[in-house]
Amino acid sequence: MVNDATYKLAWRFAAVLSCCVWIIVLIINFAYFSTQKTGVWAKDLFNNIAAILLYGSTVIASVVLIVIPLSFYIYAFFCCLHGIVHLVDRGSAPGVLMYLLGVAFAFKQGFFEKDKQIKITGLILILVAAILSQIRKGFLPLITTTLQCLSVFMIGFLLVMIFLPDLQKIMKTKETSVLRLSPTLFTYRDAKILQDIIVGKKYEAIASEHNIAVSTLKNNLSSLYKKLGVSNRNAFLAKYSNYTIKLDIPDPAPGTKPSSWSE
Q: Residue 256 domain-assigned?
């Protein structure tokens, strides 16, 4: 299993690579603009300035991600932004791929934990609006863009269907690691509830089992996630879904009650 330091290092490397790529893109754009005559550059002034701002802000975001490598909301925002700009400007399949990548980052960061249907509907409407913007170029470009987008979704669906059985087998056969929690920071109940989250229990069921309110459960889980260095439930599951959670002391004797949370 990849440890925390390696995980952060990998994302930091990705941010460095992204920063280098976008700096090169920015330089190429400046070089291209410098070769244009003033009249030609001014004719498409809005698009040229928008391109410089987009690439420049992406470079800045990449620098921020080098410092804070696990800020997936930044990845989500800029992937979606580049995807929409690419779709509106060119109407090609890479824009859809970039947009879907942004949605995936948002999902990983826990964006869909609340108001899921509203957020999904909004994201779909944004994507459809970007595709329909091609109508300004004519009916044929709109049809072409729509078909390209549908082909991306079809290929993605087929890939999932092809590899899903194998992925499920891999997940089932993965060796489960043990995450031993420090007794100075966690209690038996903490370990039990974190394990319940891993196995997929609902908040209501966990709260009922431990005789606490759901709001209390969520508040204390937020504190536990912070101690573990993750921001939310999705981030916790992304890192620890294959772990068994245990307190790093002998198990309590039968009938012994673990320490509890206060309301």
A: no
